[in-house]
Amino acid sequence: GQSLEQPSEVTAVEGAIVQINCTYQTSGFYGLSWYQQHDGGAPTFLSYNALDGLEETGRFSSFLSRSDSYGYLLLQELQMKDSASYFCAVLSNYQLIWGAGTKLIIKP
Amino acid sequence: NAGVTQTPKFRILKIGQSMTLQCTQDMNHNYMYWYRQDPGMGLKLIYYSVGAGITDKGEVPNGYNVSRSTTEDFPLRLELAAPSQTSVYFCASSPGTSGNTGELFFGEGSRLTVL
Predict the structure, then answer these.
(1) Parallel, antiparallel, or unpaired for β A53-57 and A60-65?
(2) pLDDT by residue (tens digit) across A18-49?
(3) Are A36 and A94 in contact (CB under 8 A)?
(4) Under a CB-based contact definition with an 8 Å cutoff, are residues A48 and A31 in contact?
(5) Is A34 helix (H, G, I), strand (E, B) or coil?
(6) In the prediction, which pLDDT does B97 show?
(7) A chain contacts of residue B40, beta-carbon cutoff 8 Å
């Protein structure tokens, strides 16, 4: 079967750094995406890794290791507005396979 | 530029009723998708389309139907609504694999309750 595993909840302090891990097992793999979703909102795209290594976009970075079927999202200089759910999703054969999401709780 | 537009935003249905969720996009994207999201869960793919006239089942197609007569429109039909179909439904689009960066463009969602 196809599955993605990510922690259900992570707590961090404002201004700190947090890493959200994702491991996957899928048939067919083109790349790993990350999405942010605020309560009551739609998912919004953050990043995409097709090749091994680190991609940086402002305060957010995403890493992929294809040999380990593993990736992570790194959020730096956390702000209260970063409180949301974060989803990893594997691009496989025309479609995205989604993890269950990680709820990020940020404390002042 | 409107992006992906879904209607209605909210709807309450009685068991056994039918309805259509509308989705339209103005980005000339080939690929369109319907997802459902239950509380505290990730997105489950219901149906997808890689172009006008072409549709295919996703992970959870039972109880739903779709059509894709134009590039812009991808309606989702619920037949004989059941309480298990209470969920938030998202329509999304993407340019296609040739320019695929793993990015989907989402509508705002349609919150459906079946009582």
Answers:
(1) antiparallel
(2) 999 999 998 889 899 999 999 999 999 999 99
(3) no
(4) yes
(5) strand
(6) 61
(7) 100-101
3-state secondary structure B99-115: HCCCCCEECCCEEEEEC
Sort strands A84-92 and B105-106 into parallel, antiparallel or unpaired. unpaired
CA distance B77 to chain A (A): 20
Strand partners, A62: A55, A73
Write out chain B residues lying below 8 Å of A99, CB-based: 42
Closest-CA residue of B relative to A31 is B102
What's the CA gap between A83 and B93, in Å, rounded? 26
Nearest residue in A to B5, CA atom: A42
Q: Which residues from B are below 8 Å from A when comparing CB atoms?
A: 31, 33, 40-45, 48, 50, 58, 90, 97, 100-109
Which residues in B lie closer than 8 A to residue A101 (C-beta atoms)? 40-42
Each residue's pLDDT, cut to its tens digit, for chain A (108 residues) gives: 688 999 999 999 999 999 999 999 988 898 999 999 999 999 999 999 999 999 998 999 999 999 999 999 999 999 999 999 999 999 887 788 899 999 999 999
